[in-house]
Each structure stands twice: as C-alpha cells, then as structure tokens.
Amino acid sequence: MKKNTRTAFIRHMLENERSIEPSPEFSYKALIKSRQDYDEMYHRSIEEPEAFWAQMAETHIDWFKPWDAVEEFDFESDNPYVRYFRGGELNVSYNCLDRHLDGPRRNKAALIWQGEPNEEVDVYTYQRLHREVCKAANMLKRLGVKRGDRVVLYLPMVPQLAISMLACARIGAIHCVVFSGLSAEALKDRIVDSGAKVVITSNYGYRSGKILHLKDICDKALDMSPGVEACVVVRRIEKRTDMKVDRDVWWDDQMAAESPHCEPENMESNDPLFILYTSGSTAKPKGILHGTGGYLLYATLTMKYVFDLKETDIYWCTADAGWITGHSYLVYGPLSNGATSLMFEGVPNYPKPDRYWDVVEKFGVNILYTAPTAVRSMMKDGEQWVNNHDISTLRLLGSVGEPITSKAWLWYYSAVGQGRCPIADTWWQTETGGVMITTIPGAVDMKPGSAALPFFGISPRVIGSDGDDTAPNEGGSLVISRPWPGMMLGVYNNPEAFKNVYFPMPGFYLTGDGAYRDEDGYFWITGRIDDVMNVSGHRIGTAEVESALVSVLQVAEAAVVGYPHPVKGEGIYAYVTVKEGTVINDDLRAELCNHVRANIGPIATPDVIHFASALPKTRSGKIMRRILRKIAAQDTENLCDISTLSEPSVVNDLIQETKRMS
Ligand code: PRX
To answer: Which residue intervals define the domain AMP-binding enzyme C-terminal in the entry (predicted)?
Structure first.
C-alpha cells in the first residue's frame, strides 16, 4: 500500500470503526474458511465438550496408553481443580519429534536459529533436533536428574534452550525457564522455590550489541541456592569463564560423550511438564504449573487453527522462550505440528530498526507473531524501514501480550501486511497455556483493536460486581466459566493461591483483566484490573516493585502504579516517601532504580520516581491507588470521591508536585 493511500485508509477506518473482512483468497485456502465453519465447530465444542476434546486428542496427539476420563473439574468448591485425559499416557518430546521421523518431515527444518550477529545461523532438521534432545536427556540423567525433578533453564535465545526444554520433557523432569533478563536475586528466588537440582545457563549472551554476563549472574544466584548440584554451561561466546570445580560442566563437553538414543518416559497426562513464574498481586511471583496431555493438545490445536498452519510455512514467533508465548508458540505448538519454527536471538531495533524485516526477507517468513510494543516502536521509527525490504512472503500476522490500539493495528495491517495479511490478535495468559480469544484468520471479520471471538471450547464472560453478565459495550471483569485443556494445573508450592487468586467467585476462572463485549459478541480487552502492570508486554506486579523499593534503607513507603506510555504501553510510576533527614537528589533516584534492577531485572526499572511528601490513604490506612493512578496519568479532572481519605490535602500536594516535575 502506498503511503498516501495507507494514511487515508487508516484515517477512514479510525473515523468509521468498520470491520475488515478477510480476503477471499486467504479464506479459500484457510483451514477454517468461513464464519459458519467457525460457528459450527465452536458450538460443537461447547455443547459436547468431552466428545470434542476426545476427538481432537485422538487426531492430534500420539498416546502410549488411552485415557480413562476426558475432563474432570470443579470450579465451585473450596478445592477447585481441573484434569484432562486422566490415565492417558504420552510423552511431549515424542509428539514434538519422534512421530515426525517416519516420513518426509524427518529432513524438514524444525528449528531455524538466527543469532544476534547476522552471520550466526543454524538449522536443526527434525532428525538432528531429535538426536540433540536425546543426548541432552542422557546428559541430564547422568547428572542425576530423575522424573519429577526440577531443572531451571536460564538461557538466552539459543537452540540449547529449546533442546533443554524437550530433553526435560523426554525424561519427565519439570523445566522452569527463567527469562535471561531477570536478575540474580529473581533467579535465586525461582531456583529456591522450584527446588531445582540442576541449572542450565550460558557463559554469555548478546543483547543489542552488548555482552550479557549470564554466568556471573547465575553464579551469584547459585551462591544463595545450596540445593543445586550441577550447573551446565553453554559456550555461547569463546571468552574466559570461571567454572566452579565439582559443580559446573560445559554443555558441549557433556553432550559429546552422550548417546543420541533415549527412550521417552511414559508420562501420565496430568504429570507436570513445566513451571513458569509470573507476577500477580503479591510481591512473590507465582509458579504456574502446566501439565502434559491437556497442555500439549491445547498448544497443538491453537497453533494449527490460530495460525492457519500449512506444511511449508516458515513461522516466526518473536517472543522469548522465557515467557509462555515462547513455550507454547515457539517450541511446543509448532514442533508438535511438525512446523518450521524460527528462533531469533536479537531485538527489533539492533543494529538498525529494520532487523525484523531483514530476518523476514532472509528466511521468507510466512507467519509473524509479535507484540504490540514492537509494532508501536516500529511505527515510531517509520515505515521506510519496512519498505526497504521484500517481505511479500508474509501471509498472516499475529499480535499478543497487551491490547493493541486500533491505530497500531491498522499500521501493522497496512504497512507490514500491505492490506493482504489478516491479523490474529490473540488474548491469553501464562495461566491459560494457549490462546483463548482470537480472530480466527480467514473465518471471521476483523475489528481493529478487538481480540474478537473465543477459541473452540472457551466460554468467556464479562461480569459486573453483582456476578451477572454486563450489557453489550459495558465494561466488567473477564471470567471463563468452563475449563479447557491448556488450563494451569495449579500454583507450585502454593495450593491456596490457586483458589484465592483464580477462583475467588465460585464457578468462574478469574482472569484479572477488564473487558467488554460489543453488540456482535466481539471481546475488547481493556487491560488488567488487578495490581499487575503490563510494561512492553511484560507482566510486572506493583507489589514486587514496591517491595524492592522499600528494602532501600532511606525509603519509608512506596506505591507503584502503571501509567500510559507511548511505546511501552504502560510505564512504571513509583511514588516514594523517604525517612526523615534523607537528602532527595538524583543519586538517591539512581540508587532506587539500581536496586529494582538488581532485585527484579531491567524490565522493572521505574520510569518515574516521584518523591512524595505523603501518600493518600483511607482512614483505615489503605493507600488509595485509584487516585495515584489518575495523578500519574495526569487525569486529575475527575478524581472521584476523596472524602474517605484521612487527609484529603495530600492529593492536592501530589498534583502540585507532579506539575513541578513535568
Ligand atoms: O492483560 C492481559 C495481557 O497480558 C496478560 C497476560 O500476561 P502473560 O501471562 O505474561 O502472558 C502474555 C502472553 C500470553 C493478560 O492478562 N494480554 C495478553 N494478550 C493480550 C492481552 N491484552 C490484550 N490483548 C491481547 N491480545
């Protein structure tokens, strides 16, 4: 689309709020070709869920032993639970690898790896990946890892990360991937909470041309984690690395000695596959526990239908495997379907803002799945970076992680997709395992900014504080009223949290998101309604940042809220009061930021630190975050009722302080 045409198109769409039909050419070739096909399959999945999931599980997954019961759950009692395919036995790595080795897929690229340095590329066929996974599985066994043991993976985006995940799955160990941008303190917390026996890391990593000292960070974490028996180190960069005798071993040395044959363990469908920590409303991240059969089926099925997957597609999910998107749509979903998944170590804007388009052109990518924060930053850099590349191989675009505004959606659609590629906006969460609400490409009309309709088997509702469904276009709390196979099994080490956080109201899984449903039944997600921020698609708990801030000696109190940010979506705004006698200056501000970085990681660094004289509190001493959020957003026209505050004048002081700061 030419720039002028595109600008006119975006303006027209924004003014008229029209929906966009998928192109007939796309629909004709799509797996789900029409709204009618979608409706029929959706209704069947809701009306006869057991028959639907049984049929899907039989046709999409290879089982070693059939199940005894398809679906068992309780959303009502004090002990909510969900189980799928009880008694069924399978192995996830078998489904992702072995079953593709008999036919032509054996020599197909399973994983294409593009390193941050452009010249570093590697391709793993299914056969090669299978051999590497078997060797890694044998290595883990030799290091004493047994079925049910936890293994922490603190790795950058290198093939060894996917290999390690699959190796754990092969022997029934539970992997716990920790995003390589998190700090030593955060890594230690996850190692200790999961009780990991072995940690796999790499000596260094690349990020935007800089070298990350991952082994040093890992060493600090391991000094505080006495339970870890061995640390395997991937040699990412040939550079001096301190290795601790009797604990550290090199990945390549170990792998060289291992056999490329390893029988997969027979896992029961509800045996845990992985733990992934995520932020909630408390200072301590929760270990979300996912199972085997249900999770794999859900990742496989959503991958196939949401991305309209074809045998020859080159599919690229830009998410880091340290997050759930990387688990379900970089590793398990694509490989279970026998697809070609591209793994990219770099970032969108290094060395130049056209890195994504360079990669799309180089590999002829057909499906691109990325986040609104990347779209916004590319939109800011300007479309000339896109236009300099031939990206005509793209046929489908995906979005995940945060609400995408209609403006960013339309830019993505017209500047990247050239008005040709449908966009699947996908709403889901770490806890849901896979996509829950989406625009099934080719089948349903797209409304820019709306995640559209539920995936098969999903029954979302928007309810008000009375528990009743809200009227069309009226906001409320997004809940899910039936289970689905990708649903988390529980919270590791914290069974009460499963009930308290997700089932405070009997009968519904509470998502923590706000939403409304329009007159056509389309869902519009408005963002978190709990104390969780979404910063560049990263989920960060306000309580986590507050707890890091108050651990600084000079800090008396801290209250953290999100505020609208043009590129990050939400920025982090920290109100801090200091102890008497403390000198407030830029050094203290820097110290606070450094402290948060060291406690959580750079992604949690506050964008604004507001040294406040006092914080607004109710008479019972509760901080009024609603007011703090409005002040941070500079939306102080309508502050609602402040009469319940113990000292209403505090609010005015804060507003004046904000004015002085800006
Ligand atoms: O607020 C929603 C937002 O991201 C949260 C889940 O974050 P996380 O568990 O880290 O998983 C991210 C990747 C699935 C949700 O509660 N979110 C995710 N996708 C969307 C979204 N908000 C709006 N639209 C989306 N497509």
So the answer is: 544-622
Question: If pLDDT is split at 50, 70 and 90, which confidence band does 662 have?
Answer: confident
| Protein residue with least CA distance to atom 13, ligand 1 | 401
Q: State the Cα–Cα distance between residues 177 and 153, nearest whole angstrom.
A: 5
Say which residue the tokens 């801090």 belong to: 576
Q: For residue 235, what are its two tokens?
A: 């040699």
Please say if the pLDDT value at position 471 is more than 80.
yes
Q: Which residues pair with 344 in a beta bridge?
A: 114
CA atoms within 13 A on the CB side of 375: 30
Query: Residue 416 to residues 13, 24, 323, 446: CA-CA distances in angstroms?
Result: 17, 19, 25, 16
Find all residues with CB under 8 Å of 300, minimum gap 6, and list them: 60, 61, 95, 332, 333, 336, 337
306 lines ligand 1 (CB under 6 A): no
Number of H helices, E strands in the chain: 22, 32
- pLDDT tens digits, residue range 236-246? 999 999 999 99
Which residues have CB under 8 Å from 240's CB, separation 6+? none
Least Cα distance to 463 among 503, 533, 510, 532 occurs for 510
Bond prior to 351 in cis (omega within 30° of 0): yes
* Helix or strand holding residue 594 (H, E): helix 586-599
pLDDT tens-digit readout, 427-450 = 999 999 999 999 999 999 999 999
Residue nearest ligand 1's atom 23 by CA: 403
Query: Hey, CA dihedral for 226, 228, 232, 235, is it positive or negative?
Result: negative
Cβ(425) – ligand 1 distance below 6 Å: yes
Q: Which two tokens stand for residue 4?
A: 């002028």
Give per-residue pLDDT as tens, 335-346.
Answer: 999 999 999 999
Residue 187 belongs to what H/E stretch? helix 184-194
User: Taking the CB of residue 519, how many other CB atoms lie within 10 A of it?
Assistant: 8
Let me know: does 499 contact 78? Beta carbons within 8 Å: yes
Residue type, 59: T
Candidate of 534, 535, 536, 603 to mutate for ligand 1, largest count of ligand atoms within 8 Å of Cβ: 534
Give CA–CA dist 192/187, Å, rounded.
Answer: 9
Q: What phi and psi, each to the nearest 5 degrees, are found at residue 541?
A: -80, 135
ipTM of the complex: 1.00
Q: Which residue has the tokens 């924060």?
A: 373
Collapsing DSSP states into helix, strand and coil, what is residue 50? helix
Give the lowest-confidence range in 270-274, 576-580, 619-623.
619-623
In the block, residue with structure tokens 């180190």: 233
Ligand 1 atom with minimal separation from the 437 CA: 26
Distance 429 CA to ligand 1 centre (A): 5
| Distance in angstroms (rounded) separating the CA atoms of residues 596 and 579 | 19
Q: Which residue has the tokens 């999100």?
A: 562
Q: How far is the CA of 660 from the centre of ligand 1 (A)?
A: 35
Index of the ligand 1 atom closest to the CA of residue 525 = 23
Q: Is the pTM here over 0.90, yes or no?
A: yes
Residue of 539, 568, 603 to test ligand 1 pocket, by largest number of atoms within 8 Å of CB: 539
CA 112 to chain centre: 21
Matching residue, tokens 């051999």: 131
Cα–ligand 1 centroid distance for 323 (angstroms): 11
CA-to-CA dists, residue 520 to 166, 329, 444, 445, 463, angstroms = 41, 29, 12, 11, 17
> Looking at the DSSP assignment, which residues form a beta bridge with residue 399?
370, 425
